[in-house]
Amino acid sequence: MARIAVIPGDGVGAEVMAPTLRILQALDVSEGLGLVFDTFDFGAERYLETGVGLPPGQLETFRREYDAILLGAIGDARVPDGAHAREILLGLRFGLDLYINFRPCRLYAESLSPLKGQREGQIDFVVFRENTEGPYTGIGGSQKPGTGDEVAVSTELSTRKGVERIIRAAFAWARKKGKRSVVLGDKSNAIPAHQLWLRVFREVAAGYPELEARHLYVDNLALQLVQRPETFEVIVTTNLFGDILTDLGAALVGGLGLSASANLNPDSTPLFEPVHGSAPDLVGQGRVNPMAMFLTAGLMLEELGHAQPAARLENAVLRAIRAGQVTRDLGGTLSTTGVMEAVLRHLEAPA
Amino acid sequence: MARIAVIPGDGVGAEVMAPTLRILQALDVSEGLGLVFDTFDFGAERYLETGVGLPPGQLETFRREYDAILLGAIGDARVPDGAHAREILLGLRFGLDLYINFRPCRLYAESLSPLKGQREGQIDFVVFRENTEGPYTGIGGSQKPGTGDEVAVSTELSTRKGVERIIRAAFAWARKKGKRSVVLGDKSNAIPAHQLWLRVFREVAAGYPELEARHLYVDNLALQLVQRPETFEVIVTTNLFGDILTDLGAALVGGLGLSASANLNPDSTPLFEPVHGSAPDLVGQGRVNPMAMFLTAGLMLEELGHAQPAARLENAVLRAIRAGQVTRDLGGTLSTTGVMEAVLRHLEAPA
Ligand SMILES: CC(C)[C@H](C(=O)O)[C@@H](O)C(=O)O
Ligand SMILES: CC(C)[C@H](C(=O)O)[C@@H](O)C(=O)O
């Protein structure tokens, strides 16, 4: 049995979560996964009412009683400066010490890429984004805010422990999956603190002689991701650079409607969320693309030890894409529900 | 008369500088620009010999006696951690207080873009990259380096003055050039210090009611640059994000072989450099693409008040590109000298 905490969240969160739960339940029935879902109403509404994003003790409850957290989206223009998103989203990532933000980037169909000459499957890399340090720790602030003398600072933190564990995770995964290379993206030529990344990368790489370890400055990495995305397999990078590079990666393979992510720590309760946000402009129209959430659920199944059902789900999404059973962002005409029904049909069809 | 300090620098620096000076001299003769060139040998060689990147007093000399600095490239693997690049390149940017890093991104020919369906001229935006603050100030360092307890920090600095002047520069330029929009890229949803950027952006924008002022989180901006680059005209952003976004922009229009940049402050001596680095793998082969340096020289001419010759130069480069008179990186077969000769011929041909 696996107990899953479901947080639909804000905006389109509920609209992508509902069909995802339908699909998970269908898989549960046919594969006997024993999934149990509890829903939590964390998000802007509750934050605006109570002033609290994550109630006290919640992290402990998640750690002790749940095997996974599945989250739709957090973000609402009524909350100034995204305060509740930081409290909930970063609160979960940091509070549960989920140091691996695992974000795959795969081209499911040639037509989905804005790039010339990229064929299906040719773009296929994973970003290991550090997820508990960087400028996301919130160290910093403003002196004399609102005046002409204002000085605002933000401190990017990298610890040996933090850098080493994400780099080790990337190399270990690359070995397990039989990949050929791991690329580090940093900015050590301008930011001396990033030399820690480069040093640890070289140290860890020495234990993986079968893997090519390449180092690129992040600006050059962004450029090469556009010019030759097919040369990347595993990228490991800082929290901030990972944020930018994974949106860039999403753009190369069809956009945020297809981008899944997993926040992991083998010793904690993992959090699964699509890379997209709450998309307020799409709310209530029934046409948001639920596929990123489906693929995110697939990552969850894999992490829960259900590799076979996870592959079945990804394959069903792939078939729906090939059949043009997609929402408007991918050039189709289907509604959110229509996409769900198509994926359900492909799930049931023989392989 | 205009006195220009020429720094060929490292790697391919000299190889792109020599043909650029030939072209500037040809323009000088035909247009009577009165350009005077003095060459400086700053770079890795001198740094390795003397331990000094920029000699004491050099900034003052540049400020007092020169109208512009033209730089090829700085970077050499023999200098650990790019120390001399920081001392020279960042030394000039910071020491001369060149707060505007102006980087245009224009698609000169459809075939140059890796993107589907982008036609000549359709991608045409400029990035105003803040150039004197950010994590580039060097605030930070490592505690217990090399140990398991190492903690490395880097502080990103934003001052009201620094943020305001780059944002004002972007809006003023957009108005002068009759553009329709200015986009801010920051990460204020995760980095509270970036709220200074957003506040100042909104304040300055209020003085430009004819311009659409759009705000995007940098991850989303990177994504949209790939998905719909034609919707951007003027982007203003932080030092670090500008570094990444301009390499990304370069990738969209043909790569670093065509990317020019100007480091500006109306009250100081400006510095002009291509976005590319010293490209050690290309040194001595006579086939590096000099066009980024040519276009950079064009930006210099414009800044020196020679808009007409600057346009003539850009146009000659454009014609060479259209005629396929390009180096290998752009799909051609010409040498560096061959490209120079082609551009010289187009310069002389009637428009
Ligand atoms: C060499 C490096 C310090 C520099 C920068 O980061 O500014 C370069 O990437 C650039 O964009 O000019
Ligand atoms: C909402 C924001 C704080 C978040 C981040 O920067 O991590 C998002 O962009 C993401 O990538 O998950």
TrEMBL record, chains A, B:
Gene3D superfamilies: Isopropylmalate Dehydrogenase (3.40.718.10). It holds the Pfam family Iso_dh. Signal peptide: none annotated. Keywords: Amino-acid biosynthesis, Branched-chain amino acid biosynthesis, Leucine biosynthesis, Magnesium, Manganese, Metal-binding, NAD, Oxidoreductase. Its cofactor is Mg(2+); Mn(2+). Its EC number is 1.1.1.85. GO terms for biological process: L-leucine biosynthetic process. Residues 3-343 form the Isopropylmalate dehydrogenase-like domain. GO terms for molecular function: 3-isopropylmalate dehydrogenase activity; magnesium ion binding; NAD binding. The keyword Amino-acid biosynthesis applies. Belongs to the isocitrate and isopropylmalate dehydrogenases family. LeuB type 1 subfamily. Homodimer. This is 3-isopropylmalate dehydrogenase. It comes from Stigmatella erecta.
